[in-house]
Design goal:
mainly alpha; Glycosyltransferase; 2 strands; about 55% helix; 6hp_glycosidase-like_sf; PolySaccharide_Degr_Enz; Glyco_hydro_88
Length: about 375
Amino acid sequence: MEKTPSFIALILASASCCIGASAASTQKSMQPEIVVAMGKAADWQLAAEIKPKQSPTDWINGAFYTGLMATAETSPSPRFREALIKIGETNQWKIGRRTYHADDHCVAQAYLELYLSDKNPKQHADWIKTTRERFDYILKNPKTADTLAFDKKRRGNGDRWSWCDSLFMAPPAWIRLWKATGDQRYLDFMLSEWQATSDFLYDKDDHLFFRDSTFFPPRLESNGKKIFWSRGNGWVLAGLARVMQYLPKDHPARPRFEKQFREMSAKIITCQQPDGFWRASLLDPEKYPNKESSGTGFFVYGLAWGINNGLLDAATYKPAVLKGWAALMSCQQADGKITGVQQVGSSPTAHADNNSEPYGVGAFLLAGSEVYKLVGNK
């Protein structure tokens, strides 16, 4: 029987639907594997000893707690939420000791997310009491007159958000406190300070953030390119996602956050390497050949969040996310340990392939939580 063009088109369309359905089914089958991987990573970090110089309320652990909260929301096991509540109780729900420093505000994100997700939050006002007292003090005694220029010899570098990492550490806490209390001042302060930092550190040509003012040209990489630190920009992309998670879609500031998020995302996927990782230096990957999982984790998280929330085109970005997630999975050892994490620092550097840090585990867990949602969508 001769096949008419319309009949052939129908067969091709049916085949395409079957292939698409098969691919969707295969991706959805990833979800149990993701939950297992996240659980193993979280359990490993919870069992690991805190290094002597690491406070349980510092940013190193605070970033892990954000991932632990994401695990609690993804896994059916109650043990992760219970572990986070126990951490808060042990910390007496305190945040870091430095009044203005963004790094010492990071831990508040977990406290606030526990509060916001609790069925009876008013019974747990103590969970956010210290954070609110600290932020109220900052509002009454702001440091807005100080310079954003970064000088390691000058005291007060951390009084304002003068380094790009700070955009992950503090703003998500401030906007969560606004959500928890309804006090507009917290949101207004966050928006004002984010804009000041962005105006100062965001390169409008390359659509990436300098880590701080000490990395402005003429300081360059050995290949002559600008120095854009992978994890530093990962902090920012993840910070944008965690701010927009609560920033109302009809808020006047929303368009500029979305614009910056899209600009950064478009640039970031061009920096991904064939093996799925982003190297420590985004524009000079050959100088630091180590597979780096912390920056990669934050990029996977941010890009997946963007797809899941309709800000990024899935056809364009999903392949990069899945390739990045596969790269992250290759960094997980049998006992759950996440390796390939660049050590604490402020610039691109080489690192030991077996190195792990709590914030790197946090990035892995955040990434897993959004990839879980991504592969479960039709």
